[in-house]
Amino acid sequence: MDDGWLETRTARTLTFDVPGWPGHDPGQHVDVRLTAEDGYTAQRTYSLASAPEEGRLVLTVQAVTEGEVSPHLVAQMRAGDECEVRGPVGGWFRWTAGTPGPVLLVAGGSGIVPLMSMVREKARTGDPAPFHLVYSVRTPDHVVYTNELFALSRTTPGLVVDRLYSRGGLPDDTRAPGRLRAADLPGPDATDVPPVVYVCGPTGFVESATEHLLDLGHRPSAIRTERFGPT
């Protein structure tokens, strides 16, 4: 792996060279296993952040207090260090270039990671599907991929990015800080064809976002969710 870089104070992006890696579909994940010198092992699951690429994968990891794997990946892992990865894993929470119809992405905190893989693949392939990303974080300091999202929103046709803040925003924000609301999300009639919806974030966020989406009229079968929480 390379040395990676910090996205926020507690989130780090790491790039791994994986011989024989077949590539993946955006939205999939891998199992990462670390082995200590005494033989103790710990394994956690992380979403893939990169667009599909053979022999190489990118993870963005948020350090979890008292975690066994994420603090090591964020604060201690260095270029040349090795770990085991298994994958790609996941069949339902996927988007591939060429899939017809618009896409609505709803991210809470580090739930942006698998959705960023989809955004990057859209940009890489020039896929014409309309993408609308609604990204909710505590404060501007918690935004992951902030510079890349800013650039992609201006250079990728059909991509709309809305950033929302739950604790504290920017001085010129027109939306007061607060948790995700139904009014923050587009209804299914915002496009000619109802979108496929991908929601990712902490369990409470995913449950609340899903309720809002259903209240707005999105079909349950069109909503795909991925959630995470304490292990």
Automatic annotation (TrEMBL):
Named cofactor requirement(s): FAD
Keywords for this protein: 2Fe-2S, Iron, Iron-sulfur, Metal-binding
Keyword Zinc-finger: no
Any one Pfam family match given in the protein's UniProt record, by short name: NAD_binding_1
Iron listed as a keyword: yes
Listed PROSITE patterns: FAD_FR
Gene Ontology MF annotations: 2 iron, 2 sulfur cluster binding; oxidoreductase activity
Domain of life: Bacteria
CDD domains: FNR_iron_sulfur_binding_3 (cd06217)
Domain FAD-binding FR-type: 1-95
PANTHER family reported in the protein's UniProt record: NADH OXIDOREDUCTASE HCR (PTHR47354), PROTEIN RFBI (PTHR47354:SF5)
Name this polypeptide is given: Ferredoxin reductase
Organism: Phycicoccus avicenniae
